Structures are given as C-alpha cells and as structure tokens.
Automatic annotation (TrEMBL), chain A:
Pfam families, per the entry: MbhD (PF13244), MnhB (PF04039)
Organism: Thiobaca trueperi
Transmembrane segments: 6-25, 32-49, 55-74, 94-114, 143-168, 189-212, 218-238, 250-278, 284-306
GO cellular component assignments: plasma membrane
InterPro entries: CPA3_antiporter_subunitB, MnhB, MrpA_C/MbhD
All residue ranges annotated as the Na+/H+ antiporter MnhB subunit-related protein domain in the record: 190-297
Annotated protein name in UniProt: Multisubunit sodium/proton antiporter MrpB subunit
First-listed, main subcellular location of the protein, grouped into a coarse class: membrane
From TrEMBL, chain B:
Family: Belongs to the CPA3 antiporters (TC 2.A.63) subunit C family.
Protein name: Multisubunit sodium/proton antiporter MrpC subunit
Keywords from the named record: Cell membrane, Membrane, Transmembrane, Transmembrane helix
Cellular component aspect of the GO annotation: plasma membrane
Gene3D superfamilies, A to Z: 1.10.287.3510
Organism of origin: Thiobaca trueperi
Amino acid sequence: MSAALIVDLGLTLLILGLGVWTVAARSNNGAVVGYIAYGLLVALVWVRLAAVDVALTEAAIGSGLTGLLLLGVATRLPRSARLTRPPTGLGTRLLAGFLSAAVAGGLAAVVLLLPDPAPTLAPSVAANLPATGLGNPVTGVLIAFRAIDTLLESVVLVFAIIGVWSLAPKDGWGERPGWLRPAPLGSALTLLAQLLPPIGILVGIHLFWTGATAPGGAFQGGAVLAAMWVLAMIAGLARPPAVSRRWLRLMLVAGPALFLTVGIAGIWLAGAFLAYPVAYAKPLILVIEAALTLSIAAALGLLLAGPPEHPSAAERQP
Amino acid sequence: MSSVTLFGLCGAALVGLGLYGLIVLPGALRRIIAFNLLGSGVFLLFGVIARRGGGVIAGTGSDPVPQALIITGLVVAFAATALAVALLRRLLQETGRDDWDEDERSDR
C-alpha cells in the first residue's frame, strides 16, 4: 500500500466521519460547523482528483458561503428546536436506512464496474481548445463548448435572487436586505474587514483573469469578491444596498444579458447560437467573463444578504 | 484498490448518508444539510468519472467536461440552498417553528 493511498484512505475516513456527524449531531450548530469542515476536506479530495478548478469552487462556495448561510439560520432557530426532539419512528428509520444503503450499494457497484478504458471527451477538448485562444480547458468548456450550461446557470442565480426577494415581509419591499446584522463596532471583526478586502479583491480579480490559462475563472473569482463584500457588510463597514436600486439590478443581469446578446449575435456572425467568430473569440470570452464575474459576485453576496426587511424588523425578531 | 476508486466509493456512501438524513432528520435545517451532503456525493462520483477519463492523455489530469458541469452544479446547489434557507427563515418569522408537519406533531 503506497503512502498516497494511505493519506487518501485517511481523508476518506475523515470525510465519512464528518458526514455521519452532520447527520447524527445533537445540536444544529454542531452539524453546521461539521459541514463547513467537511466542505474543506472535500476541496482537498478535488485536488487529489486533479480538479483544481473544482477545488477552488468547493472551498469558496461549497464550504465558505454555504457555511455562512447555514450558520446564519442555525443561530436563529428557537431553543425548542435546538433540543433533541422525538426521532422518527424505528420502522421509518429502518426502511430509510435500507433504502439508502441500497442506493449507496448500487452506486458503489457502478463505481467498481466502470468501463476500462474510461470514455472521455478530454482529447476533443484538447484538440479544439486552440480555437478559443484559452489555455485552461475547464474555462474553455464553461464559456465555449458548453456555453449553454453556463448561460442557464447564470440565469438560475438571478432567479434565486428573485425567489429570495419574493419572501420579503409585507412592509419590507424596497428596503435593504436584513439578514446580515453588523457585529458591534471596534471588534476584531472590524479590523479584519478593513485589512482583508483590499487583498481579497485583488485575489478575486486575479482568479478571474488567470482563469483563461490556469485554474480559476468567473465563478471562483466572483465567489471571493462576494465573500469580501459580505465580510464588509457583517462588520458594518458597508450596508447592503436597497433592493430597489437600479444599478444593483443592472449589475445582477449584466453578465447573463451580455452572454445572451453575444450568443444571439453568434447566429449571424459565426453560424450558430453561442458560437464565437474565431478571430474575436478570446476578447469576446474575456468581456463575457468579466461581466459574469461582476454579476456572480453581486448575486452570491445578495443571496447571503437575504430578502429586504423594514429597518424596524430587527427588534421584532426573536 | 486505487485512490480514485476509493473516492468513488466515498461518494456512493455520501449519497446514501445524505438520502438517509433527508428522510429521517427532524427540522428543516438538518434536511437542508443532508441535501447538500447528497449533492456533494453526486459531485464526487462525477469527479471520479472525470479523473478516470483524464488520465488517458498527457497534459490533462482530469476530463474538463465533467469538471465544468460540477462547477455549474456547485453554484446551482448554493442558489437552491439559499432559497431553502430563505423559506426556512420566513417560516421561523411567521410561526416560530422550523418544521411544518403540525398534525403529526400534535399527535405525539
């Protein structure tokens, strides 16, 4: 047994242990913290699977932003909900356990019986990548070869914002989002929120820019930018903008709208929807990525900031 | 057994674990976490398939097509989680509870 396999086995056991913990933990806070640690370890697995782009996304969004979102609601659950409640009946649990074990067993059998050599699209991506002018095959797939997925996904983010905003209380519409109540001033958080964002914003822009040739891209960069924005909002150094602001809405739709416009223009200029004219492929992709980064950062930040609330709602809440 | 197969089995186990939590756990927050666990297991299975496809040719460690789909999936999973959390917080605001099966609760 090689050293690498032993490390991977340890990593797998840690991940499974944390997975069991998030299901079995007594307190909600404990389960959420377990899930954050779990996400970071899964990011390590992505590195071991040679998928650095996915590792960056997992660490930033899967662990960081999701963790913040879950912690925000876990601390607000009423005390009665934090206590252990009568668990589901034994029969249901047995049946659910049997069903879940069957699903897991079936998937495990599929993993063990995967065809060898594995079917792959990597050679066709490598052969066609020079036409896009990009050096990172993952960015090439995201923005060029499977552009329709990325376009629809950026629209999903806008729909999620619409969904969250629709949950505003009656008197809340047009106000500022209410989830991120700032901590008291003068705390260590304030210092962190002053020191970190200048560096974090540079890292975010770098991730977007370097995504053309190396691991990184619009999603990873946008997630880091969103994290910096949220940090400033939590520390009270920046207030979340009122949802009725026109510039905010323009920022949210700029990425998907530009992507769609270029995609439709491709019907005449390059012969197909979402195709780029070869001579202009690289600059077009960079402009789309820049707009997407901005829109993704705004959307992720606003999803964490929640629906608009009337300023007085803070006192009414438990 | 190779590391890639090991991570594949880990993904399969996580799907089972998440599914079990989704059915059995009380309270919406715990079900949201279990749902994320289930999704994470599916992504891992995808990553294993990507890794197996990438080793074939030199230069790419992992098939970029499934990788791109995983990145898309992670962002969509986050958006769905945010919407679920928003629903849960609204439920808390309106009723002060984190669950909705009232009939079942009053029977116990």
